[in-house]
Specification:
The protein is an alpha+beta fold and 174 residues long. The protein contains four helices and four strands; from the N terminus they run E-H-E-H-H-E-H-E.
Amino acid sequence: MTEKIRLLAHFEDVELAAEGVDALDTMGITNQDIEVVSGAPISPAMLGRHHAHTNVPRYALGGAILGGFIGFFLAFISPNLYKVYVGGKPLSPGGPSIIIMFEMIMLFMLISTFIGVFLESGFPSYEKKEYVPEISDGKIALVFDVEPSSQTKIEQALQNAGADFIRIVERQQP
């Protein structure tokens, strides 16, 4: 089995890059196999791609549920473990108990969301990345793997889509 070649296609603007993504899609390269390298954030919709799947909402929901349990414990269970009656007031008054539960839900949801974003982004990444100096000037690059037998066909399709240049790229530290 032959080893795949890593290609980098360089585009002037977003519209041409979107056409390049469409050309790669017609050649059988899926969106998951294409990396978009740009100096500015580009949403997947701008390139005609599907929105990336993330588990961050699940992390946030898990943190909110954990915070709800901890808030319930602090507001209702803890006062009954160490009973201190003050001025005839109930051990767990309604308003302050709701505030404690709300704050614990928000605190744990924010912490778990931060951890989720940290884990989902793969930060820090110690592997070598593709670096193209032109990206700093506002250009866009598509990086993908192809079989050596289909390299010329894909290069021609990307040239027709408006690629400035296409080259074989090796991973390097920027």
